[in-house]
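Re: beginner question about structure tokens

> Can someone show what the tokenized structure looks like for a real chain? I only ever see the sequence side.

Sure, here's an example I had lying around. Input first:
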Amino acid sequence: MALIAVGSCMFTALALEPVFGLRVDPTRIAAQIVTGVGFLGAGSIMRQGEAVRGLTTAASIWVAASLGMAIGFGYFLIAIFTAALVIVTLIAIRPLEQRFFKGRRNRRLSDPHPDEPG
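And the corresponding structure tokens:
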């Protein structure tokens, strides 16, 4: 995640610098970052039967890239606020998930497959 954030920050910061007296449109670089990170996130999502795993990882990759872009553009306060909000969300969601979906994983492992006898 840190490498994604740093890479996004570097690409964004470089897009703001003129090259040979010419300026590059930084929004084009940002769009390419979003596209590339989308592929990384999609690669982290796995489907195992009915269960889908890796959505939180994919979302975290997406947020890490956006934090890097925000820092690259110089929006430090927005990046700090967003990072804090993401950390609080990830910490707060775990107890809720354990409370409301406590038997879900065990039930799936212990239930026989619908097509199998017994």
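Each token stands for a local structural state, so reading them left to right follows the chain. Strands lie at 46-48, 51-53.
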